[in-house]
Amino acid sequence: MKAIALLVLINLLVACATPLAPEATQVRQIQPEANSPCKFLGAMEVSGSFVYSSLPEAKRDMLAKIRNETARLGGNAYVLTLLAVERGFSLPLAQGDAYKCP
User: Fold this and answer.
1) CA distance 36 to 29
2) Is the pTM above the cut of 0.70?
3) How far apart are CA 49 and CA 16, in angstroms?
């Protein structure tokens, strides 16, 4: 019975990570510039789940979600404006701006 409970817990932990969409592999993080040739596409906000095996895993998941959302909006770059990943009972959160750059 303990083995089954452990397998269920491991599956829950592994299932939390967001896979990177194929089109999101070309999305990169950029620094905001006043005279950038990039076109602003929109602001984004994504949130995670309560279950992560570590803080780095939660950060990776939030960045994958931001990259996926940027690609979904037709962009190839983003500026990260907030990455809030803490221990405790708060959901991880990331905010950013999506851009299409030449």
Assistant:
1) 14
2) yes
3) 7
Determine how many CB atoms are found less than 10 A away from the CB of residue 59: 16
What is the enclosing helix (H) or strand (E) of 7?
helix 2-15
What is the pLDDT, as a whole number, of residue 7? 44
Beta bridge partners of 39: 100
pLDDT profile of the chain (102 residues), mean per 10: 50 66 94 88 92 86 96 97 82 95 94
Dist CA 71 CA 98 (whole Å) = 8
Query: In this structure, what DSSP letter does residue 95 have?
Result: E
Q: Cα–Cα distance between 101 and 86 in angstroms, integer? A: 32
* Token pair listed for 73: 């909006």
Token pair, residue 77, equals 């770059």
Rg, the chain, Cα only = 16
